[in-house]
Amino acid sequence: MSATAPTAMIERHPARRRVQDDDTRLGLFMLAPAVIYITLLVAFPFLLSIYYSLSDATVGSQVLHFTGLDNFRRVFDSGTFWRSLRNSLVFTLVSQFLVVVLAKILAVALYGDFRGKWLVRFLILLPWVAPISLGTIGWLWIFDPVYSIINWTLKALGLLSPGSWPIWLGQPDLAMASIIIVDVWRLLPLATVIILAGLAGIPQDIHDAAAMDGAGFWRRLFRINIPLVMPVMLVALLFGIVFTFTDMIIIYVLTRGGPYDTTQVLASLAFFTGIQGGDLAEGAAISLFLFPLLVAVVIALLTVARRTEVT
């Protein structure tokens, strides 16, 4: 009876049977929830930000008036915007260079067999599992101007002179270095796991053939590991760039863009202008500059990854 029940149900619903028999309709039906989710989560806010950027929207306004490109002109005339754009590029490029290099080193080290391997992997994954806001608060204590564990450790080791005491979040160069360190700490586990999966996908026959030919560690690294894992490394780099370029939590918790806007990035500037400053129109205009930059980066990296995978 249980075997004939589904058949009878399908016969009573011919529309369901047509969907199940047609692969195209079934695929569209399965993709519909994801499309609806992405539309509500991404497309609607994006279109709303375009609408706000062309108006005089503020936090308390009830009636919006069309202003054209006036908000974009004000943004272009602002020195803070160009400083934030430069900071965004420096913050993203430097941190992701360090992430990819360190992730490759960690992935190669974790690829081998050794005692306590599971524990090391668990510890490396902790920064990615922990909420970024809580982790950044921990770093805020580490960079404390008075009780910084870094400064006290350097002092105990005799590496700090008596008259020097770094103010990590109060000096422009050290503040930028601090947020880069936190971003590397946050994204390193994700890149390591991605590259480690790429290393695991290399056939063992290639390693055996290289060992028989007498290839050493460095030769295998630059002739086998890196070329074969390059598409996966580019994917890890793509995720890291998107996460870093659009992130404002680290800046908001640690520096709030200071000192003197030396750590202000586009994402944080859009938040401080639109939400805290109340100028939703100008904040939306600033946030829209993230879109063409990220689209260009995504297209470039995916094109390179595809060519690398083909060759």
Quick take:
The chain has 311 residues and is an all-alpha fold.
What does this structure look like?
Helix content is 75%, strand content 0%. The chain is mainly α and 311 residues long. The chain has a single domain, classed as MetI-like (MetI-like fold).
Features:
MetI-like fold; mainly alpha; 0% strand; globular; 311 residues
The biggest beta sheet reads: none
Beta strand %: under 5%
CATH names the topology as MetI-like fold
Q: Termini distance?
A: 56 Å
Please compute the radius of gyration using only Cα atoms: 25 Å
| Helix-strand string | HHHHHHHHHHHHHHH
Number of domains: 1
What's the total number of strands?
0
Helix tally equals 15
The helix fraction, in percent, is: over 70%
Mean pLDDT: 83
Top CATH class: Mainly Alpha
- List the uncertain runs: none
Per-chain topology:
Elements lengths: L3 H9 L1 H8 L1 H31 L16 H7 L2 H33 L5 H13 L2 H11 L6 H8 L15 H29 L3 H9 L4 H29 L3 H6 L11 H11 L3 H9 L1 H21 L1
Helix pairs in contact: 2-3, 3-14, 4-14, 5-9, 5-11, 6-9, 9-11, 11-15, 13-14
